[in-house]
Amino acid sequence: MHQAIDTLAAWLRRARFTVVFTGAGMSTESGLPDFRSSGGLWRTGHRFEELASVTALEQAYDDFVAFYRWRIAMVAHHAPHDGHVILARWQREGRVHALITQNVDGYHQRAGSPEVIELHGTLRTVHCQRCRHPEPAETFLRDDGLACPRCGGNMRPSVVLFGEALPERALHAAEQAARQAELFLVLGSSLVVAPANWFPRLAKERGAKLVIVNRDPTPLDPLADLRIAASIREVLKAVDAGLPRA
């Protein structure tokens, strides 16, 4: 592993445009559950996909609310780890030029990342399904926070639900970053969800070095120039220790 860390540090020092792509594994190291890896079941026995859906929002709002209240409270209960903080500092130092995430917890922003491309939205805010009026996520935890104060419509988290398209602006920004990448670093993504898993492929096709840090195998492992099956937090700390201070 030491050789892999040294290699990654050397590539990070030399790359003129580095893109970091984070998935659920980045968040599980903060203590958040990964619904896909655990079989997708919530405590009621419902599948994650059933509750995190447009169908649940429209036809089972009480269950939808209970699930997302639990998720919002869970995010608030935990915090970013050292790896989030390191990535934020690398952004500020100009070592990381674009940060793309599949996660909705907002931990990159809480750690100080100045800019994050959020492919699946965020749990940091909620909005009205009818008029799009936004509110802080904390309001969703109150009984009087479920009805829009502007039009009376149902409030919902500002995440992408099953049955909804990913945001065009985020997709465009991620594509542009992937096209420019000289180093594309995947942290904690299973790389099974489309179209998000297209971005590392695009970067590789455009000549970037592809590095995947994930405990479990991914479908893109054969394309990777470097594969590290270890803790993301420990890998980032080790790489950071080998970099000159800006």
Notable characteristics:
single chain; 246 residues; alpha/beta; six-stranded parallel beta sheet; three-stranded antiparallel beta sheet; 10 helices; 9 strands; 37% helix; elongated
Structural notes for this entry:
The protein has 246 residues and is of the alpha/beta class. It is built from 10 helices and 9 strands. The chain has a 6-stranded parallel beta sheet, with helices on both faces. A 3-stranded antiparallel beta sheet has the order 5-4-6, covered by helices on one side. Helix 1 (2-14) crosses helix 10 and helix 8 packs parallel to helix 9 (198-205). The protein is elongated. The relative contact order is 0.19. The model has no long low-confidence stretch (mean pLDDT 94). The active site is at residue 120. It comes from Calditerricola satsumensis. Zn(2+) binds at residues 128, 131, 148, 151. Its EC number is 2.3.1.286. It is an enzyme of class 2 (transferase).
Tally of separate helices: 10
Terminus-to-terminus distance: 25 Å
Summarize the helix and strand pattern as letters. Answer: HEHHHHHEHEEEEHEHEEH
* Whole-number mean pLDDT: 94
Question: In percent, how much strand structure appears in the residues?
Answer: 15-25%
The helix content, as a percent range, equals: 25-40%
The biggest beta sheet reads: 6 strands, parallel
Low-pLDDT segments, ≥5 res: none
Shape: elongated
Q: State Rg.
A: 18 Å
Note the quaternary state here. single chain
The neighbouring-strand order within the major sheet is: 3-2-1-7-8-9
Total strands: 9
Classification by helices and strands: alpha/beta
